[in-house]
Amino acid sequence: MPSFPQVMDPRPILLVTQYDGGRFAGWQRQPVVRTVQGDMEIALERLCATAVPAIGAGRTDAGVHAHGQGVGVRVPERWTPATLRRAMNATLPDDIWVAEAHRMVPEFHPRRSAIARRYGYLIGTDEAARSPFRRRYEWSIRHPLDPAALQGEADSVLGEHTFRAFAVAHTAPVDDHHRCVIQHARWVERDGGWVFEVAANRFLHHMVRFLVGTMVEVAQGRRPRGTIARLLVAPDNSGTPAPAPAHGLSLREVTYPAELYADAS
């Protein structure tokens, strides 16, 4: 292994990262199982000859995918965003890919600086959704869904609410208010099914999956309309349906203020 200068650039690099979450135990580094953060840090150490933390904008769960995870790194000064991106993609396993790399200002933090996160959840309702080429990324549902019920429940989450009923208990700090601001929530019909698009300033553990699982129950007539609104004032998740499967969910995009991009023209 060659010896590289160990002076770290004070300007972090943002790596916009995609991954297939099917073979990972989530984003966060763990001592035994394979994780996205762990594999990225292995690649960074190989390239930089020193340990380099990879800080993600969010901790996706086991099985959850990403089209635009924000990952912040500080590397030796010899690396530019372009050369680091090329080297990372030559080193990373084939289920992780760096789509973009940007030089950021020193104040940038991949998690705290984010002003929005956007997720998408895929549901397949046609017979072909059970194909091995789709079922890895979609929740295959055989019973029809009521479009008006889906969107009606989604409309209930817009704005600022407390989402204790849509989070795994005891995963947030005890003093966390569990409040999130939902900026966008929409069901879009697509060929062979639906996609739920949702954006917010923050998300709680399993939150999108709990919301999707509940909306599907309503759209199939198993729960009454207005279930989401009633659960938004519930003190816990004891009355919430099971979360939707992880494999249908993808972190699509993380948004940062334009002034944090040092390479902006």
TrEMBL record:
It catalyses: uridine(38/39/40) in tRNA = pseudouridine(38/39/40) in tRNA. CDD domains: PseudoU_synth_EcTruA. The active site is at 61 (nucleophile). Substrate binds at residue 119. GO terms for biological process: tRNA pseudouridine synthesis. It is an enzyme of class 5 (isomerase). Formation of pseudouridine at positions 38, 39 and 40 in the anticodon stem and loop of transfer RNAs. NCBIfam families: hisT_truA (TIGR00071). Homodimer. Belongs to the tRNA pseudouridine synthase TruA family. This is tRNA pseudouridine synthase A. It comes from Gemmatimonas groenlandica. The gene is truA.
